[in-house]
Amino acid sequence: MVCKDGNEMIYLLAFGFAKSECTKSWTWFLKKLRKVIQYPDRVMLVSDQQNGIFNAMEAIFLDAAHGVCAYHLAQNLKRFCKQRDNVIWLYYHATYAYCIEEFDRAMAELKETYHKVYDELLSAGVKNFSRVHSPKKRYFLMST
How many Cβ atoms from other residues are within 10 Å of residue 84's Cβ? Predict the structure, then answer.
């Protein structure tokens, strides 16, 4: 949505109830949502990487960008090392960076000190978790 001053806005668009988070439920929900979205190429869907929603998004919203929820990804990263606080701080520093240099510094430190976390982030896809690399504007909304 675009305001009168030309700035874009982000807002809750829809919600639904289903028996479970599975591909069938998400496909139903996203098909309904797709009917009301005029410009799917402007959409940024953020999820927790659950297979059901990911599969449905791939099928229904071909033109939309997909992002990974920063909170859920952080929870997944905690299993890779015991010094969690520093790892999570570096991860969030990279995730919320507004410039590439800041992102690169945080990622370089992760690579040097917590290589498994660094590898896991690369496998998640930099454009999926990083604000500065996102194909769509995420503003401050990095989680579901």
Answer: 13
Tell me which residue of 94, 51, 88 sits closest to 71, measured CA to CA. Answer: 88
**Secondary structure of residue 130 in the 3-state scheme:** coil
Which position has the token pair 């001053």?
Answer: 5
Nearest alpha carbon to residue 18 among 26, 10, 9: 26
Q: Walk along the chain (144 residues) and give the pLDDT tens digit of each residue.
A: 445 555 655 555 667 777 777 888 889 988 988 888 877 787 788 888 778 888 888 889 888 888 888 888 888 888 777 666 788 899 999 999 999 999 999 999 999 988 888 998 998 889 888 988 987 766 555 655
Q: How far does CA 44 lie from the centroid of its chain?
A: 9
DSSP 65-83: EEEE-HHHHHHHHGGG-S-
The enclosing H or E element of 46 equals: strand 44-47
